[in-house]
Amino acid sequence: MTAEGFIAVIPARYASTRLPGKPLKDIAGKPMIEWVYRQTLKSGASEVIVATDDERIAAACGAFGAPVEMTSTEHASGTDRIAELARRFDWDDQQIVVNVQGDEPLISPLCIAQTARLLGWRPEAAIATLVTPLDSEAEFRDPNFVKVVTDQDGWALYFSRAPIPWPRDGNLPAVMRHIGLYAYRAGGLRAISDAPPCALEEVERLEQLRALWLGYRIIVGRAAEPPAPAVDTEEDLEKVRRYVERAPRSLA
């Protein structure tokens, strides 16, 4: 299946540890989830769905016209929340589904579409994702910046919070940072969600390692645009608010 008919799903939960109620935080008069939804609409997805377990988020989405699906409160990740929809709607195994993070109000529509196209071009892949170069040694050593190593054809070999590949001779290598934007084939998505977490995933706290553990292939591409800032804290939120205030009117 090609990427033309891809579905984008935005998982959104209220109970964020560091910033409770994050999807509903106001940015220039709109809740954050509305910003994510409207950016995702620009990607060309055939459907954009918000998947949540919270009636407050569902009500907010209904107010600005976003389709919403209520999902279980027991999900450990956004991936599991999307997999619930893949089972509910019995999406074809080859259906391409993009997981759009609900905490990136300025997410690039181009990158969403790029991720879907990348998976569409590689029928042997179960997942597609994007990377961007790391900017500094500090980021290289920071466990919050997930690093990825690929083979010569762009297939993921490993993802880690550790500084990989390690510069044995002291010269910092060309390191790629993983961007948390995924396109899945629905069949693989269901199978990966059904499997228990693997040891590597539990150690690194990176769910994509479960897919590699199970033998699914992940194709990696370099992002066409720089990644948008994610909102994890109140400070992050203020930065995005200030950016939107200075941004061109067309962004809204």
CA-based gyration radius:
18 Å
**Percentage of residues in strands:** 15-25%
Distance between the termini: 33 Å
Q: Helix content range of the residues, please?
A: 25-40%
Q: Give the CA-based shape.
A: globular
Q: Look at the structure and give the CATH class.
A: Alpha Beta
What is the CATH architecture annotation? Alpha-Beta Complex
**Overall pLDDT confidence:** 93
Number of domains: 1
CATH topology: Spore Coat Polysaccharide Biosynthesis Protein SpsA, Chain A
- CATH evolutionary superfamily: Spore Coat Polysaccharide Biosynthesis Protein SpsA, Chain A
Order of helices and strands: EEEHEHEHEHEHEEEHHHEH
DSSP helix count?
9
Provide the structure class: alpha/beta
Query: Could you tell me the number of beta strands?
Result: 11
Structural commentary:
The chain has about 250 residues and is of the alpha/beta class. It has one domain (about 5-225): Spore Coat Polysaccharide Biosynthesis Protein SpsA, Chain A, CATH 3.90.550. It is built from nine helices and eleven strands. Strands 1, 4, 5, 6, 7, 8, 9, 10 and 11 form a nine-stranded mixed β-sheet that branches. It has a two-stranded antiparallel ribbon with strand order 2-3. A hairpin with a 5-residue loop joins strand 8 and strand 9 (about 155-160). Helix 3 crosses helix 6.
